[in-house]
Specification:
Oligomer: single chain
Shape: elongated
Structural class: alpha+beta
Number of helices: 26
Largest sheet: 7 strands, antiparallel
Distance between the termini: 50 Å
Strand content: 15-25%
Length: 997
Amino acid sequence: MNNRKEELQPLPPESKVNTFKPSSSEERNALYIAYAFIIAGIPSIGIFLYYGMIAKSWQIEVIAGILVIVSFIAFLMTFLIRNGKHIQAMTVISINVTLTFISIPLLVQGLGVISALSVIIFLVAITSLAMPSRFALPGFVGGVLTGLAVFFLDNAIRYQRFVVPQQLQALTPYVSIGLLLFFIVVTIGQFNKYTLRVKIALGILATGGIIIATLTFFGVTQASQLINLLTNQYEKESRARINQEIIATVANEAEIANNFFDGILNDLEVVANVRVDLEKDKALFIEGPYWNASTRVFQLSGGQYGNSTTDVSSVFIPSTIVIDEALLADLNTTAYLDFYAPSFLSAHPEVASLYYINTAGATTYYPNINLAQNVPPDFDPRKEFFYTIADPQNDPAREPRWTDAYLDPAGQGLIVTLSIPVYKNSSFQGVMATDIQLAKISERIANIKPGETGYAFLVDSTGHILSMPEQGYKLYEIQPEELGANDFPRLSVLVKGSFDLQEATSRIVNGETNLAEIQVNNEASFIAFAPLKTPNYRLAVVAPESEFTGEIVKATSETTQRVEGIIRSSVIILAFLFIGALLISLWIGQLITSPLVRLTKTVDAISKGDLSARATVGTEDETGRLAAAFNTMTERLNSTLLGLEQRIADRTTDLERANKNNERRATQFESIARIAQIISTTESNEELLPRIAEVISQQFDFYHVGIFLLDVRKEFAVLTASNSEGGKRMLARNHRLPINENSIVGYASKSGQPRLALDTDIDSVYSTNPDLSRTRSEIALPLIVGNEVIGVLDVQSQEKNAFGNEDINIMSTLARQVSIAIQNARSYQQTREALNRAENASMELSKQNWRQFTNQREINGVVFDGVNTKNLSKNGAETAHNLAIPLMLRGAKIGSIKLNSIDPQRVWTEDEIALLQAAADRTTLAIENARLLQDAQKRASKERTIGEISSKISGLVNIENILETAIKELGTTMPNTDISIQFSEEDSEQSAGLRRP
């Protein structure tokens, strides 16, 4: 009742609200740091996720995921801090911070400095503010080393990473300065908490660090400025050289094309001068001694006049012209061009035709294409542009004239006509003209390939396209035009394309020889141009700038890499100097503080009871005199407490002995645990061996792995497991090999030594197996347990000489492991069988014990009718029921819980059956415990009675007294029983003379 009242008493007021009150400033700072991580992590996660989606960078999103994990762990650590385990919590957060900042340079390039400073600051702040002072120095050293590792990682990794934009990298110095100032503030704030050695080290590092940082900043800045100056100068000179080369290239191509037209012009002027000379001697040719027009020219059905196709030239006289003697004389004179025109055409294959049109309208055309049949009868060439441009009205200066390009009606593509007027003194005689195919010059222009993907195009003085590849049309954002016969190109490049391209096009049309830079598909490109003065055309070439500035980019990249390498080497040297300075400062601090540290340790040892401790007097300064004075004081204290010290020493010895015993026991327990773990993970051979074969095949890339086990008689090696298709077929037919030296497996089985066949084609022991026809090398290793060979590990490869010494060693190790695994599996199987037998014996024993227990009791069970509970006799009728739950004890049924519902149609739910099953299990356990308790009580009572009788007779020495006492005690124990003790020899019995009624 007292306990009940205490349970009902109200709780104290302070226990109603579970509030956390930090016991120290360290716990409070730890909680603040954890909250700071959570508060800073949430916006950081959002920023990284947003920037990752904007930049489409999975690396940024991975960093956001890492921050999510770190923030969640920091949240979990708040509960650990509230439970008084702030050191463990801060250790976990420190590890997370280290891993987080180490992972950043693995994913992102350009944040090495910020990450390095951040990890230094965080680790120093955590170990200084939220952990005991003994963690301050390891935290400082660990932070510095981790920061250097982060910085080196960011500069050493060469695989492709996400590069932080230049805008963000430009903020790095300012952020770094801010973090550095924060680090200085934290260090100063915790300065008094540091040990003297740390303070000395920090002072030395601060002085040296400022000097090193200043020199580094000055050196890197000056080197960068010098490199940038040299790089810019080299790039400027290289670009100027490239510009000159490109301009010279296009000018040279333009000159070549111009010479092409000049050659035609000069030769055509020669032919025209020949015609002039013939006109001067016209009187000699009137009668037609070479070719007589009066007999060779005839009228056609359309009224026009022509000549035979066998003549060198083709003559055409329109039907509208009346033939007279003057016209015939002119044709006879012109016929002597037959000796010059073929040579002209042969010298210029790009010329489609050469023809002369006199003032009467008659045409002499080379080559002979039966011109009279191919033009309209009334066609008057004197009205065509190729004639009119050279007549006296349009060409008073009597200069050669070029027509605009037009589509040849004869199917020669775009052509241009060069017309030269023919005069005899001041009398205009006609026009000498030639048609030039631009397709020929277009082919040459198409072969102009500046760079790798550059191209050229040709336009006339008004910007009309004469020759342009597909890339040019895309550049100007236009489509090629379709021309009809005698149509002039109308598609112009003027006012087309981007603004910078339009400016360049204007300069092209103006006839400049220069170069411009334009943007093509967001890529800088060169466009160089030069005029063709003879036909007044314009040649231009377009090429990506990168194909010409590759050397500049390469040189700049190499220079940058070398500078970065120098800076990286300088940083590494400075880092090692910094680490060296750190070690030296710690060493100096150690030298200065070691006497005080030794004295402090001595004081601590004495305060803990070790009065034998003495301070080492190693110097003659103040610390040495202090140590000597302290030793004197200790001697006096030691003489006073000598007896107490002896007792403490004895107890210390006892504790050490107990600790050794505990360590020995722990070692034993550890060994037992390891053995138990090995035993618990061992499976049966049927499951184990196929898995071993598959794993060896997968890990070492051997196409066949087989495991043979020796039969009981040691006559055959039987294939038990394999991974290959051939091996599985062998398993299906129970493949086995005799244990002899006729096969590799048999040899290993018999000798217990590995057998290797590096080339199965020449190995004398190897026997061909049709199921493993691809085998070219094989190794068989015996599976040995103790000194007994239990099987063979057979490994086969499709390559010759597949096994080297290292492979043999590895395979031998695997063979030993497989042997142990097989032996463990066998032991496990035997243990399992023994356990099953023990369980069966236990179940049988339980049945016997319960059978004996129920036979000794008259009650067969208990029934509850809803009101009363009554016992069931063994001879009673079977209890009616519609649901029975068996009472199972170690696999044996000892009874049942029977339920009978009023509703015979009732259906028991799963929850009800589960409840009844749980009740049955607990009832079985309780009944068994009760039975065992009764047995135990009986055995205890028996032992107690025996003990009492033994104690009463053990003190007696007289035989009669012993017998009498034994009789009395047994009679007391078993009332209403006659008890006697008799001594018997052979078949006769002699009464002891004592009897207890």
